[in-house]
């Protein structure tokens, strides 16, 4: 959101008072003493990683989040993570650590950035259930309204263990027009922070409650988060009002990052959006686990309904280009059980894929190529794996 848009919105801001959260409840990553901050709200213990920060990070981000352009709905789909869950892949460490690096801001507001931690399986129902709102950067503005620069970094004083979630919030204009040092002037223009755990946000629909995107960069081993600082759906909804990286160490401690460095579908990969040479690998459920698919072959007419007539263990690997178009898809199926009296077949349906758009297909059984069919149903491709599983 740019300054020019503030004028149109300044008279229509809403206030939310459902929570008892007050500015006095905030704690500070760099300490509460004002001497730990510059007059423009920058922590004095900030250090710069600008020289080692990949030079294409911001260009990649802005190719995905263009200024003033409505965010791609796929980036904020319900299945996309917006916070960071920690799993058990700690590489022998007792806990994971995290640091936050400022990239850029496109806001007219002087926003405040903070974080909180919660039990992944018992998330907070409201703001009052958050154990601590910890302020990282009181004023995330660049000059002349602030002093933040690309590469400014803070190490978070947090020890993350499996089953915890690291989440973030911004306070829209929290530092305010007359802020100083680490003084948080208010809870913002809408009386509430906006959270990466979207259930805490005030909008009336789940879609509008999303206030951030989370992109993953497996090559550089960090996440990029982008926030929208206006009550939605007001504003430009470009989700680039505040951009920062989160580096969790070890990287594999992030749920969704596999031990081989690949990722599953929890996070949107960070790429140069319009570069056709870029490829992205997405694995479901992950490169070192499988999902299970179980069938009842007489449903819903009659039968024992035990759902073990055909049981598969499976994994799906997609290779996509920068426009998220599929270049290659691999289905890995292993038959686990076949409790049916019928001689059942099995096929894979590809929705919205015309057989004419498939360049080639290969089917292997126990490592050996076998003949197969690709048929058309309603203009969509169906890959016939077996017409008789019992025979094959």
UniProtKB/TrEMBL annotation:
Name listed for the protein in its UniProt record: DUF4114 domain-containing protein
Keyword Signal (UniProt): yes
Keywords: Signal
Organismal lineage: Bacteria, Pseudomonadati, Pseudomonadota, Gammaproteobacteria, Vibrionales
NCBIfam families: LruC_dom
Keyword Signal on entry: yes
Segments forming domain DUF4842: 325-391
Domain of life the protein comes from: Bacteria
Annotated source species: Vibrio parahaemolyticus
């Amino acid at each position: 959101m740019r300054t020019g848009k503030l004028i149109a919105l300044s008279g229509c801001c809403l206030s939310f008072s459902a929570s008892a959260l007050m500015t006095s409840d905030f704690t500070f990553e760099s300490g509460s003493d004002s001497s730990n901050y510059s007059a423009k709200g920058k922590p004095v213990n900030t250090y710069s990683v600008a020289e080692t920060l990949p030079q294409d990070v911001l260009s990649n981000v802005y190719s995905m989040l263009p200024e003033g352009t409505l965010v791609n709905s796929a980036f904020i789909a319900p299945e996309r993570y917006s916070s960071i869950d920690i799993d058990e892949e700690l590489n022998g460490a007792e806990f994971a650590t995290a640091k936050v690096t400022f990239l850029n801001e496109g806001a007219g507001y002087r926003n405040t950035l903070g974080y909180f931690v919660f039990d992944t399986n018992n998330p907070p129902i409201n703001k009052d259930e958050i154990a601590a709102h910890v302020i990282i950067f009181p004023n995330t503005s660049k000059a002349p309204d602030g002093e933040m620069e690309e590469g400014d970094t803070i190490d978070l004083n947090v020890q993350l263990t499996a089953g915890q979630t690291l989440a973030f919030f911004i306070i829209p204009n929290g530092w305010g027009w007359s802020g100083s040092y680490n003084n948080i002037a208010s809870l913002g223009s809408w009386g509430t922070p906006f959270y990466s755990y979207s259930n805490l946000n005030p909008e009336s629909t789940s879609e509008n409650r999303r206030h951030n995107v989370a992109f993953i960069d497996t090559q550089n081993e960090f996440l990029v988060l982008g926030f929208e600082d206006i009550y939605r759906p007001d504003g430009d909804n470009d989700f680039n009002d505040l951009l920062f990286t989160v580096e969790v160490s070890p990287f594999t401690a992030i749920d969704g990052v596999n031990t081989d460095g690949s990722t599953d579908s929890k996070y949107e990969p960070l790429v140069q959006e319009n570069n056709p040479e870029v490829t992205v690998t997405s694995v479901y459920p992950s490169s070192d686990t499988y999902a299970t698919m179980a069938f009842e072959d007489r449903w819903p007419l009659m039968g024992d309904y035990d759902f073990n007539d055909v049981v598969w263990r499976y994994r799906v690997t997609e290779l996509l280009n920068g426009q998220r178009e599929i270049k290659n898809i691999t289905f890995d199926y292993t038959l686990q059980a076949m409790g049916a009296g019928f001689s059942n077949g099995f096929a894979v349906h590809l929705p919205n894929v015309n057989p004419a758009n498939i360049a080639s297909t290969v089917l292997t059984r126990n490592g050996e190529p076998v003949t197969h069919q690709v048929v058309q149903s309603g203009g969509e491709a169906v890959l016939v794996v077996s017409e008789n599983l019992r025979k094959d």
